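Review session, final week

We close the course with one last complete record, chosen because it touches almost every idea we covered. It is VPS9 domain-containing protein, a protein from Microctonus hyperodae with 463 residues. Go through it on your own first, then we will talk.
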Amino acid sequence: MEVDEIMFNPFYLVLREKFKAKYDVALSKCLTICIPCTDSLRGLNITDEFVDDHILKPLSRLPYHYESTNLKNPRIFKFEDDYIRLIQQNGEFIYPKSYKIKILNIERGYNKDFKIYNIVIVDKLLHEKYVNLQKPIENKIKLNRIIASYKDALNFLQEIATLERCSLIELAANIKTIDPNNYESSNDLGDALQEWIRRNWAQIMRKFNLDIQRDGRFQKLLSTSLEIFIMHELHDKIYSLLNNALDEDDLNLKKKIDELIGLRVTPDQLGVKEALAISLPCAIVELATLDARHDPLEKFTCLKSTLDLIIAEIKGALADVETKIESYEENDLIEMRNTIKIIPTDDLIPLLIYVIVKSRPRRLITDLHYIQNFLWSVSPYDGLSYTIVTYKTAITALQKIAVDNLPSRSHKVKNDLSINEILDFVKLPESTATPIDRQVHELAMMLKECTKNDAVSNFKSHV
């Protein structure tokens, strides 16, 4: 055990905070406090009995002998060089079957009366009964997990609270002292929130052993959970301020989207290549949930997932086309399929514009500002900057679209097709199909199968 570990020892910290009265009495009477090393405390619940068993008073009639302050089950220990030996409990001597505890270090201090008291750091607990109760803390806190929502964060913090390392009630009460209206800018408010996160992160960290403190997984889980927790608690206040400041920008964007929806705009009219002008239902559904997300991390996850789904749906459509083509070399989509690992920005932006129009987010500009200024837990590898820049570029391009001067739509790309037009796609050879052809072809085949089944049913009903 490192000498400095006493400052982070769970028992020492709990003794000074939760059991301060017992701690103050021990110092004033110059009693000996035995602090088991952190590793031996894993999974233990520190109780009044535990504290009394580890605060010892000297027996004046017997040199080097000490008695625990536990009045119900007193025990007598003898200090022998570098060891403490349990020699009596409940009035019965247990020698020669003794329980020995190794002394790792002795810290000496002065109380208010300038009298010396001792804190003895030992390698294990002063009684075997506590050893049997030990459960590794790793078994209680799962470190291989992802915090991606308020529910995840709350579950993680509740697990820590059950170990008496933090109080959710106290955290929430502490947050109520922060009034977003008292800050002049988003930067000032963000600095105050980050300071709250750092302060509580450090306080909770100090209550765990060094192994847990040094575990990067736990550090990340705790910082992310605290960030989500405080942003969830303050969401309504902060988001309302941002919405008021950016309401006009959001309304202008909504107006443009409503105009395009009214014109039943198709992907190709927004700049999407005809071969890629598929409906992207998964991406549209994902982005449509943006308004229901609350904290910045959840909103960022939604925006990033939307981009991922656009790429996935395009790659899936191209792959589907490729599997239906007999001669790869004769189809100009194969080169695009082979280089589609990252969709070029010139292709991605129009696709994203179409998804934005169809999903109709109400406060996309506010959400981007919210994420950019109040999300700190993501790493540079999580794609935050790329996502923000991509959406801002799409919004800028969307705002520049001249609604009165849209290009003509392709006959292949329509929001609605007549029955005859759909059935015409059944006759198309699959070797010449593009992704949009494939999507409509599948719909046509399903419709044809349905009409065939209906015809059979009608025939049988008349037999």
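Two points worth writing down before the exam:
Confidence is low (pLDDT under 50) at residues 326-330, 453-463.
The beta strands are 32-36, 55-58, 65-68, 75-80, 83-89, 92-93, 99-110, 116-122.
Good luck, everyone.
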